[in-house]
TrEMBL record:
Transcription regulation listed as a keyword: yes
Entry protein name: AraC-like DNA-binding protein
Domain HTH araC/xylS-type span(s) in chain numbering: 260-365
Pfam families in UniProt: HTH_18 (PF12833)
Entry keyword Transmembrane: no
Native organism taxonomy: Bacteria, Pseudomonadati, Bacteroidota, Flavobacteriia, Flavobacteriales
Length: 367
C-alpha cells in the first residue's frame, strides 16, 4: 500500500509517518471513489511523484487515453459520446469492475455517492462517510485502488455500489467559456475529507441535475445537445459551489480555534530554524500541518475571515516586521532574513504593498 506522497520530500515523509492503515495527504489530492466496495479508496497524486515512488515500490501505472478505454477496462459498453459519459448506478444497478491497476485520469470526474458507508482515517481524525457525498477530481491525476487487506482486485464483474459517475474529457469543453472557468472551481483540488456532504434536499437537486444530463446524453443527440450539456454541467458545478459555501457556513462552529492554531503555527515557525532553512512560510506548509488541502484551507479561511491563507501569512509577517522595526535596531536586510526572505527587496515590496510605506519610512515615524 502507498501511504503518502510529498512533493520533493518523499523519503523524509515516509520516515516520519508511522506505518499504520491511514491514508496520509499533504501536497497531493486524495479522492474517495468507492468504485466497488466500501473498502476501496482511490489515491490521487501528481504523476511525476507517483513515478518516483513506483520505481521503489514496484507499482505500475496505466494510462487511459480515451473514455472508451476506461469503459472497456471497467466492463461497460463503449460510450455513446466519445468525450463524455455518465454512469447511473443509483436508479439502476450497474455491473462492472474497477480497473485493477493504478491509472491516470485524462478527464474530469464527478462522483455522487448517496450512501458511501464506512469511515476514513485522515491524519489523526476519523471522518464519517455514511451519508455519502459529492467528489471531484481533475485530469492528470493518478487513481489507485487500495483494499483494506491489500488484496489484488479480481477481474470479475460485480454489482457496483449505488453511485453516479460523470466523466468529462477536457476536449468536450473546448470552444466554451467553461473550459477556462472550470479552473475557478477549487473543489477539484480538495481532498477526500473535504468532500461535499449534502442535505436531503440538496441530494434531490444534484440527482435531478445528473438525471437531466443522462437524459440529454441518452435521448437527445442533436445540434443543440452539446450546448445544453455544457449548460447542465456548469449548473451542476455552480450548485456544488453554492452547497460548499453552505457547508463552510454551517461548519463554522467546528473551526473556532482554527485562526488561533494558524497563528500559533506561524509563531512557532518564525521562532524555529524552519524560517532559516525553508524561507517564508507557505500555504502548503500550513495546509499540511492542519491536514487540509491548500485549496480547501484558503476557501475555508476566506469564508471565515474574508482573507485567504496567503493574505493571513502576509499579515502575520507584516505584524512581526513592524514590531522589529519599532523595537529593535536590526537593519532592513536583517529583518528580511529573519522573516525568511532571501532578498531584502522582496520584503520591502511586500511591506510597501501592505502598508503604503517603505520599511524605512515606517521606522522613521518612531525615531
Amino acid at each position: 500500500m502507498l501511504n503518502a506522497f510529498r512533493n520533493g520530500k518523499l523519503g523524509k515523509l515516509f520516515q516520519k509517518r508511522p506505518k499504520v492503515n491511514h491514508l496520509w495527504c499533504s501536497d497531493m489530492l486524495l479522492f474517495a471513489f468507492l468504485f466497488v466496495g466500501k473498502s476501496e479508496y482511490c489515491l490521487t497524486c501528481n504523476l511525476e511523484f507517483y513515478n518516483m515512488v513506483s520505481k521503489k515500490s514496484n507499482h505500475s501505472v496505466k494510462r487511459f487515453n480515451t473514455l472508451a478505454d476506461v469503459m472497456e477496462a471497467s466492463g461497460f459498453p463503449p460510450p455513446k459520446h466519445p468525450l463524455i459519459v455518465l454512469l447511473n448506478g443509483v436508479d439502476k444497478p450497474l455491473k462492472g469492475r474497477a480497473p485493477n491497476k493504478s491509472h491516470v485520469l485524462n478527464y474530469y470526474k464527478i462522483a455522487f455517492k448517496p450512501d458511501a458507508g464506512g469511515e476514513l482515517m485522515y491524519g489523526q481524525t476519523k471522518f464519517d462517510f455514511k451519508e455519502g457525498g459529492l467528489f471531484f477530481v481533475a485530469p492528470q491525476q493518478i487513481l489507485s485502488s487500495i483494499e483494506e487487506n491489500d488484496k489484488e482486485e479480481t477481474a470479475e464483474q460485480k454489482i457496483l455500489s449505488p453511485q453516479i459517475t460523470l466523466l468529462i474529457d477536457p476536449d468536450f469543453l473546448l470552444q466554451y467559456p467553461l473550459a477556462q472557468k472550470i479552473h475557478q472551481y477549487h473543489f477539484f483540488s480538495y481532498a477526500t475529507n473535504e468532500a461535499l456532504h449534502l442535505s436531503a434536499k440538496e441530494k434531490e437537486t444534484i440527482l435531478s441535475l445528473f438525471r437531466d444530463i443522462e437524459e440529454e446524453l441518452e435521448n437527445r443527440i442533436d445540434d443543440m445537445s452539446h450546448n445544453v450539456i455544457i449548460s447542465q454541467i456548469e449548473l451542476l458545478l455552480n450548485y456544488a459551489q453554492r452547497f460548499y459555501n453552505r457547508q463552510f457556513i454551517t461548519r463554522k462552529q467546528n473551526y473556532p480555534s482554527l485562526i488561533d492554531r494558524i497563528d500559533q503555527l506561524l509563531e512557532d515557525y518564525f521562532n524555529s530554524d524552519k524560517v532559516l532553512n525553508a524561507g517564508v512560510p507557505t500555504v502548503n506548509y500550513l495546509a499540511d500541518q492542519l491536514h487540509m488541502s491548500a485549496s480547501y484551507l484558503s476557501d475555508l479561511l476566506r469564508n471565515l475571515t474574508g482573507q485567504n491563507t496567503q493574505q493571513i501569512i502576509h499579515d502575520k509577517m507584516i505584524y512581526r516586521a513592524k514590531n522589529k522595526l519599532f523595537s529593535t535596531a536590526l537593519s532592513i536586510s536583517e529583518i528580511a532574513f529573519e522573516l525568511g526572505f532571501e532578498q531584502p527587496q522582496s520584503f520591502s515590496r511586500l511591506f510597501k504593498l501592505k502598508t503604503n510605506q517603505s520599511p524605512q519610512q515606517y521606522r522613521a515615524q518612531f525615531h
